[in-house]
Design goal:
Elements: H1 3-19, E1 22-32, E2 35-42, E3 51-55, E4 60-66, E5 68-70, E6 86-91, E7 95-101, E8 107-112, E9 118-124, H2 127-178, H3 183-205
Helix pairs in contact: 2-3
Length: 206
């Protein structure tokens, strides 16, 4: 065999063996107003030349990283925002495939991080999708506010009932000793009646 050809083949296998040692160590997914942002970390520098991505009509975005491996059990530890419905990790003989199920993607960009062992991916939604996402987020926020308001009202109502009952009992005890109706009893009963009427009629209307 030609010595030059032999060394070229040997060099090719050496390069391949080093490339195959690239291991994806972490994947972080964050939700933004206009899309989804991924940070992919590895134990060696990642080059944009070895990464491709595309959005399929089935609602999945696929990212393929050549000459890399990943522990597929990592999928259980990746924190995903609500906009990401599902994530799959898959190894092939030559690459790693990261698949995430997201709303319609208008465009995507890979760009380098300050850390050479990290690669960033931005998935951008169309304007129409952003409006739907913001609308859903607003609905959830309003629902949370309603729940917080109801919780606060229940706390105030229970406190008023407790104070009213305590004053009423104190007034009854004092009245037995002095044979007069004490202000505590009047105030306590008044507070109980006012709380009942507000809770039964006014709060119900709201």
């Amino acid at each position: 065999m030609n010595p030059i050809k032999f060394y070229l083949i040997l060099l090719f296998f050496v390069i391949q063996s080093f490339a195959a040692d690239i291991k994806i160590t972490d994947i972080k997914i964050n939700s933004k107003k206009n899309g989804v942002f991924l940070t992919i970390s590895s134990n060696q520098p990642l080059s944009r030349a070895t990464v491709t991505g595309w959005y399929s009509e089935n609602g999945w975005f696929y990212t393929t990283i050549m000459n890399a491996r990943i522990d597929t059990n990592m999928v259980e530890t990746i924190k995903t925002p609500s906009i990401v419905n599902k994530i799959n990790l898959h190894n092939t003989s030559e690459s790693v495939q990261i698949s995430i199920k997201v709303p319609l993607i208008e465009m995507h960009d890979f760009f380098d991080s300050d850390n050479p062992n990290e690669l960033m991916l931005a998935l951008r939604f169309p304007i129409s999708s952003i409006e739907n996402v913001l609308s859903e987020a607003k609905s959830v926020h309003e629902s949370n506010l309603d729940m917080q308001t109801a919780f606060n009202y229940n706390q105030i109502r229970n406190a008023a009932l407790l104070v009213g009952a305590s004053l009423s009992i104190a007034g009854i005890i004092s009245s037995d000793e002095q044979e007069t109706i004490r202000w505590e009893f009047i105030t306590g009963v008044g507070l109980l009646i006012a709380t009942y009427l507000y809770d039964r009629y006014i709060q119900l209307i709201k």
